Amino acid sequence: MSSATLPNAAHHSFRLTEEQEQLRREIRTFAAKEIAPHVMEWDEVSEFPAAVVKQLGQMGLLGVLIPSELGGAELGYVDYMMAIEEISAVDGSIGIIMAAHNSLGMNHIYLAGNAEQHRRYIPKLATGEWLAAWGLTEPGSGSDLAGLSTRAERDGDEWVVTGQKVWNTLAHIADRGMLVARTDPDVPKHKGLTYFALDMHAPGVEVRPLRQMTGEAEFNEVYLTEVRVPDADRIGDVGEGWRVAMTTLSNERTTIGAGSGAPGAGSGSIAEAVRIWHSNGHRHNPVDRDRLTRLWIESETLRLTNLRASQNRKAGNPGPEGSIAKLMFAEVNKRIYELCIDLLGADGLVGYDYTLRRSEGLGLVGPPGSSRKLFLRSRANSIEGGTSEIQRNILGERILGLPGDVRVDKELPWAKVPRS
Question: What domain range includes position 42?
């Protein structure tokens, strides 16, 4: 296992340095020039400008925490969150591509991979030449990730993988998929997993779209039929997939939680609610004013929690603040977009196109005018990246020390665990 740590993750001041302010201005200028004028043109992934992703990579914004010799910017967590905010301000989906996919993929490989894997993978992800996806969840083991049944069997210097994954964001355009598969069915379920960087273009990989109620198909299901994966694409040791996956999920939860819009006060989804409030003065009433005020306070509390966590987080392995932020973001984001639709009144029922299309990203928050879509899309916030119920279990059991749920299968070999 690699002993690498992410650079510059020491304590930061809440006040941005002059260098950080300069980076913010550069990102803002780039977003205004290269992204904002074209957002509405990018509904179809076939129209998605790969050149923009590569430009972000050239600016170091796909690998904010990654060393410069590997193509990153070698900056800190505050810079990372600031970059997310600035890009998300004009198009949340591109910000999430940067944060939840290539950035997390690079961070994970940097921490868990070896030097050769650093050389092979990270520069391509850092420059945007490759896009990353995740292959974790399965139809028969949603929140119970350790119960997954996709099998990887050793065949010399290769692994033969067969199974199915679901809710795979960007799998339809990804070059590499971070895949967890079962390599030993005769040990307890948490111990027989191994992590791979799957070539999404390999024979036997089939990607099918999953249409959501927004009309978009930003997620996919992936069928793996005797896919041959070189052992050189294994990340971490055999049987260590659960521990490696937990690093990935902790980072993902922290990133989703940061989707509230840190570090700028009033940013993210609450900015859309405030915009609608000011534009619909004739519909104002004390009840909605109270709802808006309370949600602004909750958003600001979440923003400050994210900033505090970014200061205190140890490199590469976020603590419980990831689950706290993810849980609260899901709940607050849903309530904010409910308020947006209520403020729009009858206008909230019209003006949205449900035509099937391939979205280019997650879109946890969106640009002005996106409330109709995000009201629907935010329903998924309490599921993706670990359900709200799972986050409450993590916080209750691991942080507060409360008694855990009864788990009769925890010590059983996976092969002997009853399954429906």
Answer: 18-131
Q: Which of 74-83, 318-327, 356-365, 375-384 bottoms out in mean pLDDT, i.e. has the lowest?
A: 356-365
Contact predicate 325/302, CB 8 Å = yes
Instruction: Report, as residue numbers or ranges, the catalytic residues.
Output: 252
Same domain membership, residue 268 and residue 394: yes
Query: Are the CB atoms for 366 and 225 separated by under 8 Å?
Result: no
Interval 257-313: pLDDT, tens: 554 444 567 877 898 999 999 998 777 899 999 999 999 999 998 888 776 666 555
How close are the terminal C-alpha atoms of the chain, in Å? 36
Crossing angle of helices 77-88 and 18-30, rounded to 10° = 30
342 vs 354, more confident:
342
Q: Which of 106, 131, 156 is the last residue of a domain?
A: 131
Per-residue pLDDT tens over the stretch 103-121:
777 877 888 899 999 999 9
Distances (CA, A) of 304 to 57, 185, 260, 281, 311: 28, 44, 10, 30, 11
* Cα gap 139→223, rounded to integer Å: 11
Structure tokens, 288: 């909605």
- In angstroms, the CA 182 to CA 253 distance is 23
